[in-house]
Amino acid sequence: MRKSLLLLLAVTFPCFSLTPLQFLKERTTPAEEPVLSEVISVINNQPPINGHTLQSIHALLRQQSPHLSEAVINKVLTTLKCLDTYHIEHNPVLTIIDYSLPSSEKRLWVFDLSTNQLLFHTYVSHGIRSGTLLTQYFSNQYDSKASSIGVYKTEQAYYGREGLSLRLAGLDQGFNDNAIGRYLVMHSGWYVDEDFIKKYGRAGRSWGCPALPMHLAKPIIDTIKDNSLMVIYYPSDNWFLKSKFLNCDNLSPVRRSAIQTVEENLLPPKHETRDGILFVDLNKNNQREENEPIVVITADNYLRFFHRPPPLERMLRRQIDRIEYIALSQDEFTTLLGNTQDPLPDFSHFYFVIPEVKRLRGYYITEMKLMTLGKIKTISKRDDSGENPGTDDYLISFDNRPAATLKTTAHFIRWLGL
């Protein structure tokens, strides 16, 4: 028992044995001690952040990235100064995300402050509960599926369910300090590629992670991993007032006593609204289960049939053979059945999709699979049974299996919606 306790202490409390240098780094030094600040900066082999250095960084950001707003630059410079004030170490690589820009624009920048270079400028996703085209809502809460603003440091890269990924440690108390526990990581997303954005008008959305274009994820992650700085910006008055990285010169008791949190008007709505989609009630229990397929058509056919952009809110989160699919609502399904201009002989444009869970690199990943139910012979509307008022059920018959009922569900489906 005693040995186990000692082992636990050794693993969980390494700070019990700090070297003199580590103790000096860990010590929080008031801004009024400039000499000690200079000493620690020299020890860390980092130049002190003084006016001249901030001016040169400002010039770099302005010259290398004309689309980066002055408001963002000012907050980044303040962050760099405050990090130095608090003696928080980081390497010279700086990543900036500006969530005041829409996801259809390039809003991520990576700089190397040691070589005065802009290394990357590209697209980045936001959380599915943070908005559609615009990023409007933020959260630090578990299972919110929303993005988090604030100051981060990068940790190790690893291979997970999304492929190569990068752990992000949130430093901003109340704004992003649950990032590790929420598994907010940087990873790739096919729905952030430029071709997708040009085709559909915006990037797809993650569950809160800043996802990158597929071809840039590896070079960016390899560049910024292991102790670089990331600032995720949004013009939040609460963040401006309460973040310690934006107020190290501000000794106001209002800021010090205020509870740090995302303001109410920036939190995602408590209740999500979803379109009802059709599923095959194979289990005959009037509720969709994971083994029961949903009805989809290709995104290209959706555009051709309805002459409007496909709703990404009902797009499968995984492609099938590099093709995007849209789950059909009841109204859309009814329209297609009665569409005489675009008849559907043998209903060949309808597909049935289920998730398929596989194990890869020690993680379980979800892929989408077209389910073969046989050739559709007929589809007929059933009378409203009263189980789902305001919705219609359909009886669908196949050539080689018993007939089944199509029903509507608006419940959350984890692999549906971008």
From TrEMBL:
UniProt KW keywords: Signal
InterPro entries: YkuD_2
Signal peptide: 1-17
Domain of life: Bacteria
Signal in keyword set: yes
Pfam families reported for this sequence: YkuD_2 (PF13645)
Entry protein name: Murein L,D-transpeptidase catalytic domain family protein
Taxonomic classification: Bacteria, Pseudomonadati, Pseudomonadota, Gammaproteobacteria, Legionellales
